Amino acid sequence: MDKLEAGRDQMIAQQVRTWEVLDTRVLDAMQRVPRELFVPAALRSLAYADSELPLPCGKRMLTPMLVGRLLQALEVEPGEQVLEVGTGSGYLSACLATMGARVSTLELHDEIAKLARGNLLAAGVEGVEVLSADGATLAAESAYAAIALTGSLPVYDPRFERALKPGGRLFAVVGQAPVMEARLVRRLGAGEFSSVSLFETTLAALENVPVPPAFRF
After folding, report:
1. For 9, which DSSP code?
2. Distance CA 22, CA 12 (A)
3. DSSP element (H, E) containing 148
C-alpha cells in the first residue's frame, strides 16, 4: 500500500467515520475515488488532510468530513438525477457518480469547470456533465432527485427546493458566519416541504445569491 492509499484509509477511519458517517455506500465511494487526482498537483501530499484545499478563483475544496456528511444526508440511489451547484475540483461529483447517480454540475467559473472536466477524465469517472453556468439563476422545476449546494446561502433561497422532484432532497448550508446551519430539505409533494437541521458549520457563500440587507442605524 502506498502513502496515498494509506492516507485515504486514514481519512475514512479518522475523519469521516468519526463525524458519524457510517453509510457503507458513502464510505465505499470515498474509498474508491482517488481524491489526489482532484487536488492541485502541488498539494497532492495533502489530498487526505482535514482541510479546505485552495482552487483557482479563490475557491476551496470541501473537507472530506463535510463531503461525507453531505453524501450521507442525500441518500442518493443509483440512476437518480442529481444537481450539484458549485463544481469545484469535481471530487463531490465523482463521489456522487460512483454511488450511481447521473450528475449535472454547474460551475460559474470557466477555468474551474475546465479543471473539473480534466480531473474527472483523469480519474475515469463517467456519468457527470459539467456545465459552465450560474446556479444562482436556476429556474428548473421538479427536475432533480437530489441537489447539493457546495456553497452556503446567506439567505435561504426557495428556488433550489422548487427544483426537486416529489421525494427529492436538498443539502444546503444556510446563514452567515460565525454560525451556519446545514439543512436537509425534502419535497413531500407539489407544494409541501420539510426541513431538518443536521449540524452547524461554516462555508463560503455561493456567488450571486441573495444576502441579508445591510444593517443601518
Report:
1. H
2. 10
3. strand 144-149
- How far is the CA of 66 from the CAs of 15, 71, 148, 163, 171, in angstroms? 10, 9, 12, 23, 11
Name the pTM for this structure: 0.95
Residue showing cell 428556488:
159
| 108: three-class secondary structure by DSSP | coil
3-state secondary structure of 69: helix
Fill in the amino acid letter for 101: A
* Rg of the chain, C-alpha, whole Å: 17
- Give 25-46 pLDDT, tens digit per residue: 999 999 999 999 999 999 999 9
DSSP element (H, E) containing 98: helix 91-98
Q: Which of 92, 82, 28 is nearest to 60 (CA)?
A: 92
216 class by beta-carbon count within 10 Å (0-12 exposed, 13-18 middle, 19+ buried): exposed
Taking the C-alpha atoms of residue 172 and residue 84, their distance in angstroms, rounded to an integer, is 11
Nearest residue to 82 (alpha-carbon basis) of 66, 98, 102, 108: 102
Taking only the tens place, the pLDDT of each residue in 17-27 is 999 999 999 99
